[in-house]
Specification:
The complex is a heterodimer of chains A (about 110) and B (about 140).
Chain A (H helix, E strand, L loop, with lengths): L1 H5 L1 H18 L20 H4 L10 H5 L11 H4 L3 H16 L10
Chain B lengths: L2 E9 L5 H17 L3 E17 L2 E13 L1 H13 L3 E8 L1 H22 L14 H11 L1
The chains are: A mainly alpha (about 110), B alpha+beta (about 140).
């Protein structure tokens, strides 16, 4: 009896705790490490704000802004690009790599 | 139904200009003979390659925009693969992308027209975001 009454309580806490974990880690950051892991979400998608429609593999300068020093594609949590544009950007970068406009791996 | 393709290829740097022109002319001939339309030819010039391709560090980039069917593009690619001066090529299909861009531009044009006209005409098009909340607020008040 006491087990039945007590076990639902922790069980309800745990699922409530887990979803709030990754969500709560964000605003919980300022008290803790105070590092750069949070509140970068204010960064907006460059393509959405500037209304750039077409991401072509040909404009290397635009693509180079989203490619790291070693040639790797930068994840969107760092650049703030939205999902649709990140997918188009990835496609364009891979096309550019195929036609030797961008390197596959750079700076040996 | 004709599709629009962009064919970009790299020609080795130690090829003379006239040979390059001859090569491009030959490819254009292939396109027109196969029933396609050549929309544009652009010579992007000599560029440094991002990595070594067949032991070359530089190459002559050429961009062809072709309106053709799929079989013709396959033939064009075969020609490019076989031709010795061409070291790399890529074909990208552009007509779907162009359609999407045209649609976006059309929506943007209608949105601009709505904001320019002082009286709010009831738009029949799929309501863009600024128009939709306005309509819903008027409905809520009525």
């Amino acid at each position: 009896m006491p087990d039945e009454t007590t076990t639902p309580a922790p069980r309800s806490e745990a699922p409530a705790g887990r979803p709030s974990g990754p969500g709560g880690r964000g605003p919980g950051g300022p008290g803790g490490p105070g590092g750069r892991k949070f509140f970068r979400r204010k960064k907006v998608c460059k393509f959405c704000t500037e209304k750039i429609d077409a991401i072509s593999y040909r404009d290397v300068r635009l693509l180079q802004g989203f490619v790291a020093e070693r040639g790797k594609i930068v994840p969107r949590r760092l650049t703030g690009v939205c999902t649709t544009h990140q997918r188009r950007l990835t496609r364009a970068i891979k096309q550019a790599r195929n036609i030797a406009l961008l390197p596959f791996a750079a700076r040996f | 139904m004709q599709r629009i393709y962009e064919v970009m290829f790299i020609v080795r740097p130690d090829v003379a200009d006239e040979d390059l022109d001859k090569l491009i002319a030959g490819l254009e001939q292939t396109v027109t003979n196969g029933g396609g339309a050549l929309k544009s030819t652009e010579k992007l010039g000599r560029r440094k390659l991002a990595y070594l391709v067949r032991k070359f560090n530089e190459g002559n980039y050429v961009l062809l925009t072709v309106e053709a069917g799929g079989a013709l593009v396959a033939e064009l690619e075969r020609r490019l693969r076989v031709s010795e001066p061409v070291i790399k090529f890529i074909t990208v299909r552009m007509d779907e992308e162009d359609k999407r861009l045209a649609k976006v531009r059309a929506i943007r044009a209608t949105r601009k027209k709505l904001s320019a006209v002082p009286q709010q005409e009831a738009p029949a098009e799929p309501a863009p975001a600024p128009a939709a909340p306005a309509e819903t607020t008027t409905q809520a008040s009525a």
